[in-house]
Amino acid sequence: QKLEDGLLSSSSISTEELKEAAGFDVNENESSVSITVVGASGDLAKKKIFPALFALYYEGCLPKHFTVFGYARSKMTDAELRNMVSKTLTCRIDQRENCGEKMDQFLKRCFYHSGQYDSQEHFEALDKKLKEHEGGRESNRLFYLSIPPNIFIDAVKCASSSASAASGWTRVIVEKPFGRDSESSAALTKALKQYLTEDQIFRIDHYLGKELVENLSVLRFSNLIFEPLWSRQYIRNVQLIFSEDFGTEGRGGYFDNYGIIRDIMQNHLLQILALFAMETPVSLDAEDIRNEKVKVLRSMRTLRLEDVVIGQYKSHTRGGVTHPGYTDDKTVPKDSVTPTFAAAALFIDNARWDGVPFLMKAGKALHNRSAEIRVQFRHVPGNLYNRNIGTDLDQATNELVIRVQPDEAIYLKINNKVPGLGMRLDRSNLNLLYSTRYSKEIPDAYERLLLDAIEGERRLFIRSDELDAAWSLFTPVLKELEEKRTIPEYYPYGSRGPVGAHYLAARYKVRWG
Ligand code: NDP
Ligand code: BG6
């Protein structure tokens, strides 16, 4: 009867119910997803990946039949992995009573397999275990490479030849760094493509999963008021600012080989820039968006040494507390000139952005932690009020600030009349503060990206031609800095960074926001 009713009114009954009514075993037809975190004993896995997977589970976003496997060389039992993972899971989504129960249910789906990253035999053993959990269903497999880049290829080779899905899809999430210049990045891509197709590679840039970065396109393309202003005609400069109020703590070994330009600018800030400056894509389809990003990146001028300022933090004592300098880290050579701060002026040579400076600033051990996009608009032509007021407001132009973190917000600085009988203007903000507007906590970037990878949504992952374009902008300057062993400007831990960044901005008539 249910089947008959369903056929008459297909909207009132789900496909699953129809199948069930027709005598199919629904569960048998459901596919499974196995997620293997390669490098499960590491920092990123503990800090981000397992908590993000739990949050997805908690929200009911993971498929019904899923299993999480940790894989690394460290010896651990399933129970030990669960114990390790449980320490970093939080019910940050809300404090509902069943959180503990959900955690237990999630941990029961987590398993561990110890093995070498270059051993076919060990990956075959993993494959066997995965099959047991998949229980004969169609299997889909996601491998998250949370390991140092020098072992990416070994792991991909073994995972793809010995543990890829027999029936469904196999996808691999690759963490940065994707090489350290154009050549090494191209070599990595070439090596990955020996074992995987481009469609199977999900290069992660977690900044693309941040709520306000995702919102950039919504802001631009679904509000009439912004897009007409989004060009050299109205915008004087754009600033992309990243700062952290802590040093390289614990990651000095990795960092010294890369430096801040590779760690933050070439990927996180440049990705934001591409989304900010791209033309309207044909559709929201991943390929259409990525085509536009590549186009704008390829229109950019290669960065020149004179448009870059570099710095490195030094030890500083404040309030009786001494903060170590960058080279005080035991894993960093004493004479290292690796920049922990950089500012750069970039330009897009196309009709929309000709002559508009895009200024980037990124640094560690600065006075605060924040990531922002600042858009400074041009002066109002023939501004009536300049003549009458004659204060600092003469220079006060509108500024749109997109605060990616912390305290996510979008605000627009406007000139406004101070209420009263006189005529006094001040600068006020039209303010969209997320914490007051939205009650729901913002998901971590890794949640969005993991979910997208599971669903095969590639929009927020980096395509290989995007990567090539990004590296070609920065590689010459990185080489020059290294060949010349350019000495960075030293700045005290916890300060606002080197003064050189202000001179660079001033050269383009810009004042940092
Ligand atoms: P870890 O240094 O913690 O390494 C992860 C695991 O890889 C370790 O637990 C270890 O597992 C194994 N491993 C480490 N070094 C070697 C080696 N030389 N040879 C073989 N295996 C090794 O890395 P993270 O977890 O910090 O980062 C993982 C990836 O994510 C890296 O590519 C990193 O650049 C990237 N990343 C990390 C971020 C972070 O905040 N941590 C942020 C953004 C990107 P075992 O010994 O058990 O095999
Ligand atoms: C990583 C960098 O990609 O991003 C780190 O390697 C940096 O050096 C981190 O600390 C910042 O990410 P978030 O999300 O904390 O701003």
Question: Largest beta sheet: what is the strand line-up?
Answer: 16-15-14-13-7-12-11-8-18
- pLDDT under 50 segments (min length 5)? 1-28
Tally of contiguous helical segments: 18
The computed structural class is: alpha/beta
Choose one word for the global shape.
globular
Radius of gyration: 26 Å
Amount of beta strand:
15-25%
Distance between the termini: 67 Å
Helical amount: 25-40%
Major β-sheet annotation: 9 strands, mixed
Keywords: Carbohydrate metabolism, Glucose metabolism, NADP, Oxidoreductase
GO cellular component, one term: chloroplast stroma
Protein name: Glucose-6-phosphate 1-dehydrogenase
Function: Catalyzes the rate-limiting step of the oxidative pentose-phosphate pathway, which represents a route for the dissimilation of carbohydrates besides glycolysis.
Task: Describe the structure in your own words.
This protein has 513 residues and is of the alpha/beta class. Helix content is 37%, strand content 21%. It has helices spanning 2-8, 15-21, 26-29, 43-58, 78-86, 99-108, 120-134, 152-162, 182-195, 211-221, 252-256, 259-277, 286-298, 384-389, 434-437, 445-455, 464-483, 500-507; strands spanning 32-38, 65-72, 110-114, 139-145, 170-174, 201-204, 235-243, 308-314, 316-318, 321-323, 341-346, 358-363, 370-377, 399-405, 409-417, 425-433, 461-462, 489-492. Helix 12 (259-277) packs across helix 13, helix 12 packs across helix 17 (464-483) and helix 13 (286-298) runs parallel beside helix 17 (464-483). The longest helix is centred in the last third of the chain and has 20 residues, at 464-483. It is globular. The termini are far apart. The structure holds NADPH dihydro-nicotinamide-adenine-dinucleotide phosphate and 6-O-phosphono-beta-D-glucopyranose.
